[in-house]
Structure to design on (179 residues):
């Protein structure tokens, strides 16, 4: 099994604070203009260490600083990655039930919310913030939070209400920071 990277102190791939970010290797979308094309091939990246879950668990609270967790790619929900992602998320949730977990995917949320794939369903149950949609070069906008193009959306999981599209709220925060 291969992975693209692990960043222990990442302030970019979250909405607040610091996260541990894990990049999977392999992506079927191959979006034009992708900023991570090196993650497309399942043959690229690095050999996954046997203790990757332990590394992530340790990093989340290293030096007494609580971090959230982000899963990016590549494509985390790609069939070749989803089982590993679920194993990692199970470990993270068991150790840190209250942290926020972010996941980026090129798939559309509506398709994911209706999938019959039990691995993907289980992953979604553990994620708090889902950023969906393929990167679209013609809609590129690096000023919007958590996304690379305007077609992508930010969803938050509410235990009572389910998944809620929060894209406009994130955009308002970004706009107010520009003023």
């Amino acid at each position: 099994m291969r992975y693209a990277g692990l960043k222990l102190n990442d302030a970019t791939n979250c909405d607040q604070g610091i996260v541990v970010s894990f990049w999977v290797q392999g992506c079927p979308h191959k979006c034009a203009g992708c900023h991570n094309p090196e993650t497309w091939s399942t043959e690229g990246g690095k050999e996954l260490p046997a203790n990757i879950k332990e590394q992530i668990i340790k990093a989340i609270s290293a030096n007494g600083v609580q971090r959230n967790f982000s899963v990016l790619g590549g494509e985390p929900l790609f069939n070749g990655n989803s089982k590993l992602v679920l194993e990692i998320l199970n470990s993270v949730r068991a150790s840190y039930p209250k942290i926020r977990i972010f996941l980026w995917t090129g798939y559309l949320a509506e398709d994911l919310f209706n999938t019959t794939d039990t691995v993907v369903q289980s992953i979604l149950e553990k994620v708090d913030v889902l950023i969906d949609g393929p990167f679209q070069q013609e809609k590129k906008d690096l000023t919007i939070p958590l996304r690379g193009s305007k077609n992508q959306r930010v969803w938050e999981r509410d235990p009572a209400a389910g998944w809620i599209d929060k894209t406009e709220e994130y955009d308002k925060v970004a706009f107010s920071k520009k003023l």
